[in-house]
C-alpha cells in the first residue's frame, strides 16, 4: 500500500486561509508536515480549524518553532512530540515535530522541520533532527520520513547531509518541476521530503490545485511524496 506524506510552509496563515485549506485538501496527504503554523494568539484553535477545514487533524503538541504534523483519517497516531533543537543566540528557536503513525500496516516516524537562514544553525539542526528521528523510529519500529522547509538549495551542505542519510524523494521519483519558492513564480527547490532508503518512492512533486489557490495560499508551494512501505 502507499502513503502520501507532504510538507507545506503555511506562511503563518497570513494569506488566504480558505485557499490554503483547499490546497491542503487537494494534496490528499495522509500525513502533512507544516511549518510557520500559528504559534501566538489562539494558535491551538487556528491550527485545529485549518486542519479540520482540510479534512485533517493536528497530531503533535506544542507551538515552539511553528512546526506541526497533521494527519488524515487513514493514519493512526501512536506517538507524538515536539522537541526543541539547540538554541543559537539571536536566532529564532527551532524545533522538530514528530508523529509516529500507522496506516494499513505501515508504520512511519514523520518529522516536520524548518531550518534557519543561518548556515551554521541550519547544518547543526539538520544533523540533530536526523539523530532524533532515528532514535524515535528505532523505539517504535518505524521508518523515518523527515520533511520541511530546508531554506537552502539541494547542492548546499544541509540538504546534501539530509539526502545522504535519507533519500531525497523528488530526486528519486520526480513529478513536475519540483520548484517550491516563491509560490507566484517559483525559482528554487527549498522544500523537500526525505525518506528512509528502505522506502520505495512512487512519486514526489507538487500538488494539483487551482493556480489561484496555490499562489494565494502561501509564499511556498507544497510537496507531496507517495511512498510504499513494506510489502
UniProtKB/TrEMBL annotation:
Is-annotated flag, keyword Protein transport? no
Q: What high-level taxonomic lineage is stated for the organism?
A: Bacteria, Bacillati, Actinomycetota, Actinomycetes, Streptosporangiales
- Per its UniProt record, what SUPFAM superfamilies does this chain match? DNase I-like
Task: Write the protein's name.
Answer: Endonuclease/exonuclease/phosphatase
Q: Which UniProt keywords apply?
A: DNA damage, DNA repair, Endonuclease, Exonuclease, Hydrolase, Magnesium, Metal-binding, Nuclease
Q: Give the cofactors, semicolon-separated.
A: Mn(2+); Mg(2+)
A single GO molecular function term of this UniProt record: exonuclease activity
GO aspect biological process, one term? DNA repair
The Endonuclease/exonuclease/phosphatase domain is annotated at: 6-220
